[in-house]
Amino acid sequence: MNHHLKVTYFDMAGRAETTRLALTIAGVPFEDERVSRGQWQALKASFPLRQLPVLTVDDQVLCQSHAIARYVGCLTGLYPTENRLLACRVDEITDYVEDIMHKVYPTVHESDPGRTKAMRMKLATVTFPEMFGLLEARLTSSGAAGPWFLSGITLADLDVYNLVRMMKSGVLDHIPVNICSDYPKMMTIFNAVASHPAVATWNKAHTKVA
Question: What are the GST N-terminal domain coordinates in residue numbering (predicted)?
């Protein structure tokens, strides 16, 4: 049965991009609804958890970015539904990428430029080197021969790609754009996703990272 899928989020990559890319890579049609901050304030009260992104499947609205991504991963074959151990390994990577992102969010909401700079410099010199090193070790621990975390592309690879892409984009002042360069598996995954024909086409039309 074919469902009508609609991804609703802001006009940037952010928390919706893993879902968008999974659908794009698999060639699954979906409506890409992007709302402005002003529109969101008017719409917010009508959404179940007052948060974005949401995925509308026919007339059902699904919430929470990781839950949405896993659902789409199951639809597209980018989540290992037949092997719970491999599914857990994918979840481990996606959850740890989220842990890394949670270190970034306070610096985005900090209003004092001096404090923002100090917080970002600590991320660049202390927090990220430690966390990226741990992530790199887990990515290589699978022993996969190809460019992916496992034997084929999964949601884990898309989350790593989105993390590296954000770091390389320069949207985070005081974070060196080459901060991921010392982590070869992260960069291999990033380059493999970026060079995927469907992703390359998507990125030409959607350039805003954050």
Answer: 3-80
